[in-house]
């Protein structure tokens, strides 16, 4: 299922949460309409109650989308080192610089 911000606008979700707060809609109905579970419902409700006039479905990504260039270089270096080592399974000996 698509993410909630791709299926509904913030205004639509706010209207459903407002209906819940006013006692017009029950929790399970809002969850079914939005296609979410109880945990996500209460997270959205907390967000709505904190600031109903500026409610938003946008979120800030907590982790970067990519690794830093330095980390990528370190990984590449380690992979190249690993590639240069040839472990023979039968003897367990390590041969440097040989390729099969």
Quick rundown:
This protein is mainly alpha-helical and 100 residues long. It has helices spanning 4-7, 10-21, 27-34, 38-50, 69-84; strands at residues 85-87, 94-96.
Report on the structure:
With 100 residues, the protein is mostly helical. The chain has a domain at 4-54. 53% of the residues lie in helices and 6% in strands. The protein has a two-stranded antiparallel ribbon with strand order 1-2. The longest helix has 16 residues, at 69-84.
**Strand proportion:** 5-15%
By secondary-structure content and strand pairing, the structural class works out as: mainly alpha
Indicate the low-confidence ranges by residue numbers. none
Averaged pLDDT, please?
83
Using brief descriptors, characterize the structure shown.
100 residues, 2 strands, 5 helices, mainly alpha
Describe how the helices and strands are arranged.
Layout: H1 4-7, H2 10-21, H3 27-34, H4 38-50, H5 69-84, E1 85-87, E2 94-96
């Amino acid at each position: 299922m698509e993410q909630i911000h791709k299926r509904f606008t913030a205004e639509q979700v706010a209207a459903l949460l407002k209906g819940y707060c006013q006692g017009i809609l029950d929790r399970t109905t809002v969850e079914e309409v939005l296609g979410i579970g109880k945990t996500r419902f209460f997270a959205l409700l907390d967000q709505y109650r904190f600031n109903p006039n500026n409610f938003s479905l946008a979120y800030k990504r907590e982790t970067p989308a990519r690794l830093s260039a330095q980390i990528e270089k370190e990984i590449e270096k380690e992979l190249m080192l690993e590639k240069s080592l040839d472990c023979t399974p039968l003897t367990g000996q390590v041969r440097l610089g040989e390729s099969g």
